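Case study 2.
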Amino acid sequence: MKIDPSTRAPLAQPTRNAERTSQTGTAAPADDLSVSINPAAAELGQADSAGAPFDGERVAALRQAIAEGRFSVRADAIADKLIDSVKELLGR
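Prediction:
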């Protein structure tokens, strides 16, 4: 199951010290700036740069089917693919 990369939130980014303020409204010290990225999130970022295949005709056909009320959701198929995706991410 592939997820459209345009719907994902960006990975954590550090902010500039001038933009960061403590609860008292004063600027935060520069030495407390640190960001850590979960290894799984880093892998997602690398996978995205590889470029997933995109079938514009398929997307258009699905949109048309949804608009016309012909598209039906198969919850069992979604659940199976979700479980497979989680297994793949966990390396099982």
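The mean pLDDT is 76.
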